[in-house]
Amino acid sequence: MAIPVEGETIQIHSYKHNGRIHRVWQETTVLKGTNNIVIGANERTMVTESDGRTWLTREPSICYFHAEHWFNIICMLREDGVYYYCNVSSPFVYNNGSLKYIDYDLDVKVFPDMSYTLLDEDEYEDHKRQMGYPEVIDQILHRNVEKLIGWIKQRRGPFAPDFIDVWTNRYDFYRQCRLSD
């Protein structure tokens, strides 16, 4: 698998289990790229929905993707703190300048005080029936929801106290480099 290069701009493509595109983020700056982890950042990037609608993200975000975990984490930097939107998803793959994953509907929203709520359980059950998620996928996804909640409670990965400062500083560095070009 190719590895995105730090400082480059990539797209993020979200698909559904049936192979159809779900959502595309036009520009994300790679802050870290390895075989297992991609950390990116974006701000006011264009997002295109499957029906063609577009919108701009509102705040700076740090994005965490892992090649072994069935979730990804978007850290949204707002005035009143960091909010996390966690997508239960396939591990990512990277090719042709795009990071790609399958979105499996379940989401966990985490608030600045680290309280959290599980979202979209009805949508998950509907899509599970419609798209025929195999039982093994259902089991993997539910195990990874538990793993993700463990990370939240233990302040691991993107939930660690210094994660946001480290990666926001790296993002600021790349933004300054672009401005001076």
Automatic annotation (TrEMBL):
EC number: 3.6.1.15, 3.6.1.6
Active site (catalytic residues): R23 (proton donor)
Ion transport listed as a keyword: no
Swiss-Prot/TrEMBL catalytic activity: a ribonucleoside 5'-triphosphate + H2O = a ribonucleoside 5'-diphosphate + phosphate + H(+); a ribonucleoside 5'-diphosphate + H2O = a ribonucleoside 5'-phosphate + phosphate + H(+)
Keywords: Hydrolase, Magnesium, Metal-binding
Domain of life according to the entry: Bacteria
Domain DUF402: 18-156
EC category name: hydrolase
Binding sites annotated in the UniProt record for Mg(2+) 2: D105, D107, D120, E123
Named cofactor requirement(s): Mg(2+)
InterPro entries in alphabetical order: DUF402, FomD-like_sf, Ntdp-like, SA1684
Function: Has nucleoside phosphatase activity towards nucleoside triphosphates and nucleoside diphosphates.
Family: Belongs to the Ntdp family.
Descriptive protein name: Nucleoside triphosphate/diphosphate phosphatase
